[in-house]
Design a protein that fits this description.
The complex is a heterodimer of chains A (679) and B (117). Chain A has 679 residues and is α+β, with helices and mostly antiparallel strands. Chain A is built from 17 helices and 26 strands. Chain A has four domains: 132 residues, Rossmann fold; 175 residues, 2-Layer Sandwich (Beta-Lactamase), CATH 3.30.450; 88 residues, Beta-Lactamase (2-Layer Sandwich); 153 residues, 2-Layer Sandwich (Heat Shock Protein 90). In chain A, the strands form six sheets. In chain A, strands 2-3-1-4-7-8 form a six-stranded mixed β-sheet, with helices on both faces. Chain A has a five-stranded antiparallel β-sheet with strand order 11-10-9-13-12, with helices on one face. In chain A, a hairpin with a 2-residue loop joins β22 and β23. The radius of gyration of chain A is 69 Å and the shape is rod-shaped. Chain A starts with 7 loop residues before the first strand and ends with a strand. The model of chain A has no long low-confidence stretch (mean pLDDT 84). Chain B has one domain: Response regulator (Rossmann fold, 3-Layer(aba) Sandwich). In chain B, strands 2-1-3-4-5 form a five-stranded parallel β-sheet, sandwiched between helices. The mean pLDDT of chain B is 88. The chains are: A alpha+beta (679), B alpha/beta (117). Chains A and B meet through α12 and α13 of A and α1 and α5 of B.
């Protein structure tokens, strides 16, 4: 569709030709508007657009000067419608008009008037053609310049976007970098913290960490395990000092710049002014779990930061609260645990009794010092502790494991009696106990005391009995003996009656002595020592051994008459009695018991030897231990020889055992010779 | 002299009597404390041999009972070792303590004779 062209304007008279209403141009009808006068045409120029403007010359004289008004109009037309080709139609073109027409109005064509109509239309068509070209050019130009402009705008906005993006990217790149850097720093901080093992070390790491902020003082760490006491870790001139305060104050529960009360508190505690501090509470989760929730810790950081810096610093610290908390928590927990463990260990070790934790196969899992002292490189408790190759007789550990309950038993080790308490330990909830705690209570002494008490009571009872019997017997014996003595006065010497009476008198006398011996023998322990002949002690004891000796031959050879020892006779009698009695019991078949005394330097020796089977070497070491007995239960207390030993040692003597030849046991007692009546 | 022997053991009484009589003394026997007390009061012996442990009144009780009326020398005899000695016997008003059993009856007789003469 061709562009509709603006109308053509004709100014001036038309005659002699006739103007058509429309002028055909390139298959379009171009309206032709005609105005006769210039005055009429001028407003049109201002209001409408025209594709061509044709003006006829029109001279007028003004004060003697000729003015071409047509040309003037064209000048105006040029101003208003520069795009429309202007035609100047004149009958006679003056050179001035041509010059001014070209210069001032830029006339497209000068047309000679009148002219053939065809020529005119041709000129007009040329003009229109030129206009059209011009127009289309201008449209094109306009279009292209518009497009240009658009492109330019587009380019511009693109550039802006790119710029913006670039800035954004740069910014975020920087941000990412910073973030990464922060993370890296944080990571390093956490790594640093993770290898620290004390509050002091952590404090040093923290100080290094916050030093990058200026206007920051050395951090102070305040902690408490309960409300009674607050401990401050702070940097002093020569390292970290710990100070304590028992004045209570509440630890803030959130990070803050605290009120003046707290600052005054710090100032008082440290004895120096505190201006501005920042307090960060740290959480001790594990420690509190262990201690029941009383432990608290806060970080006190002195600073002179302004509000903006404080914000940054608070963020910086906030990032580090968790790792710090965890590190402190860990250190505290370790300390607490090791303190617990240390205390347990100490308690365990401090216990007087040997204690061992053993498993089901008697392997020692742990033991206290008292136990370990006795053990050398053994896995099994019975190997190390008892020097045995199998579980100790009477050990209740297996029973305790089986029953899951405390069991008590008694074992004997090297002459000592231990009461063993086996406590089953259940490590897994609901499972069977796999370990037992064995506590070995040495009851040797109490056992010995108890048996000695029994013995002493027994002797006391015998003593009392003997006393009563003595009285009951002594009276008739006194009468018997005395009467025999009276009758002997009356009887004829040499008669049978006389010798009979002698025998009665003797028997009565012997009976009296036996009773006296019995009384002496069964005296309590608290009798005074006296100077006494060892031979006499032996002789006094022998009558009481008659029944024990009834199957055996007794050989007595006493050689120390006139020499005295300083002893409690009844106790030494008990020793003699024990030795001879043991000798008799050791000999299943009829045998021989030999009792000898002799003098050897400043000692009196008493030897009791039997012809029994003797005592195996490995037992000789132990027979003087209390409770060591080969007799059946109920037949002996196992105290006889140990008591004999302690009696002899009480009086400065020694008792030893040897094997006799060809077989038998020989007990040798050496007692210090105190008084000598014979030269 | 007149001697009163108080003892629940017949053989003791008998042997003492025989021995004392053989020395020419007059002897009266009592077999328990009550009888002894009674005989003591009516007989007024120069010497009393008094056993400690007896049925009825025992030796010390007899001594206590006689109290101010005591006449003659008193010898306390005991077979129960340890309970009495010379000191406690004298505190009870006896003049001599003799532990039983006797080793030699004539030595005893000599001792008590010495006490009176």
């Amino acid at each position: 569709m061709p562009i509709k062209l603006d109308p053509i304007l004709w100014v001036g008279s038309v005659s002699p030709i006739r103007l058509p209403k429309y002028f055909p141009f390139q298959k379009r009808e171009v309206e032709v508007i005609c105005r006769a006068s210039l005055e009429e045409a001028l407003p049109l120029l201002r209001e409408h657009k025209f594709s061509s403007i044709l003006v006829r010359e029109a001279f007028s004289a003004n004060q003697g000067v000729e003015i071409d008004e047509g040309l003037e109009l064209l000048i105006q037309a040029r101003l208003f419608q520069p795009m429309a080709p202007r035609f100047y139609i004149s009958e006679e073109l003056s050179s001035r008009s041509a010059r001014e027409g070209i210069n001032k109005a830029q006339v497209f064509r000068f047309i000679q008037w009148p002219q053939s109509e065809n020529e005119l239309w041709k000129q007009l068509e040329d003009g229109l053609q030129a206009h059209s070209v011009l127009l289309s050019r201008s449209v094109l130009l306009k279009e292209s310049s518009h497009q240009n402009k658009q492109l330019e705008a587009l380019t511009h906005s693109l550039e802006e976007i790119v710029e913006e993006r670039t800035q954004f990217i740069e910014l975020s790149h920087q941000e990412e970098g910073e973030k990464l850097n922060r993370e890296r720093q944080l990571l390093r901080f956490i790594k640093d913290l993770s290898v620290q093992t004390s509050f002091e070390d952590i404090l040093v790491v923290l100080r290094k960490e916050i030093r990058k902020f200026h206007k920051i003082g050395d951090p102070v760490l305040a902690f408490r395990l309960d409300e009674s006491k607050t401990i401050f870790n702070s940097f002093q001139s020569n390292g970290i000092h710990q100070t304590e305060s028992s004045i209570p104050f509440d630890f803030p529960k959130a990070a803050q710049v605290p009120g003046s009360d707290l600052i005054r508190y710090f100032a008082n505690h440290f004895g120096r002014p505190f201006v501005k501090v920042y307090i960060v509470p740290l959480e001790l989760r594990l420690t509190n779990h262990l201690l029941g929730g009383k432990a608290e810790v806060i970080l006190i950081i002195e600073n002179s930061l302004n509000d903006k810096e404080m914000g940054l610093f608070a963020d910086f610290i906030a990032d580090r609260v968790r790792p710090l908390s965890m590190a402190l928590d860990r250190v505290l927990l370790e300390n607490q645990l090791s303190a617990f463990s240390y205390r347990w260990e100490k308690t365990f070790d401090g216990m007087r009794d040997p204690i061992a934790i053993v498993d089901i196969e008697f392997n020692i899992i742990r033991s206290n010092r008292k136990f370990s002292e006795k053990v050398w490189q053994s896995n099994k408790c019975y190997e190390g502790f008892a020097r045995r190759t199998s579980a100790c007789e009477g050990c209740p550990a297996s029973e305790a494991l089986k029953s899951g309950k405390l069991q008590v038993g008694e074992i004997q080790l090297e002459g000592r009696v231990f009461q063993v308490h086996s406590y089953p330990v259940q490590y897994d909830q609901g499972g069977h106990p796999t370990n037992v705690v064995n506590q070995y209570v040495d009851i040797t002494q109490s056992r010995e005391l108890y048996l000695r008490m029994l013995q002493s009571e027994k002797m006391g009872a015998i003593g009392m009995l003997a006393g009563n019997i003595a009285h009951e017997l002594n009276n008739p014996l006194t009468g018997l003996r005395s009467l025999s003595q009276v009758l002997l006065q009356e009887a004829d010497r040499g008669s049978n009656l006389y010798s009979d009476l002698i025998e009665i008198e003797k028997a009565a006398g012997r009976s009296q002595r036996i009773i006296k011996n019995l009384l002496d023998f069964s005296k309590g322990e608290d009798q005074p020592s006296e100077y006494v002949s060892l031979d006499e002690i032996v002789e006094r004891t022998l009558p009481m051994l008659k029944s024990a000796l009834r199957f055996h031959r007794l050989e007595v050879d006493l050689q120390t008459l006139g020499s005295e020892v300083f002893v409690e006779p009844h106790l030494v009698q008990q020793v003699v009695f024990n030795l001879v009695n043991n000798a008799c019991q050791a000999m299943k078949d009829a045998g021989r018991v030999q009792i000898q005394t002799w003098k050897e330097d400043s000692y009196l020796i008493l030897q009791v030897e039997d012809s029994g089977p003797g005592i195996p070497d490995e037992m000789q070491r132990r027979i003087f231990e209390p409770f060591f007995t080969t007799k059946k239960e109920g037949q002996g207390t196992g105290l006889g020889l140990s008591m004999s030993k302690s009696i002899i040692e009480k009086f400065g003597g020694v008792i030893e055992v040897y094997n006799a030849e060809p077989h038998g046991a020989r007990f040798v007692i050496r007692l210090p010779l105190i008084r000598n009546h014979q030269p | 002299m007149k001697v009163l022997v108080v003892d629940d053991e017949a053989l003791v009484r008998r042997s003492l009597s025989r021995a004392l009589r053989a020395k020419g003394h007059e002897v009266i026997e009592a077999q328990d404390g009550n009888e002894g007390l009674k005989l003591w009061k009516e007989f007024h012996p120069d010497l009393i041999l008094l056993d400690v442990l007896m049925p009825g009144l025992n030796g010390p009780e007899v001594l206590k009972e006689i109290g101010q009326e005591k006449s003659g020398r008193v010898v306390l005899m005991s077979a129960f070792a340890g309970e009495h000695n010379m000191e406690t016997a004298q505190q009870m008003g006896a003049d001599l303590f003799l532990p039983k059993p006797f080793e030699d009856i004539f030595a005893v007789v000599k001792k008590v004779e010495d006490l009176v003469l």
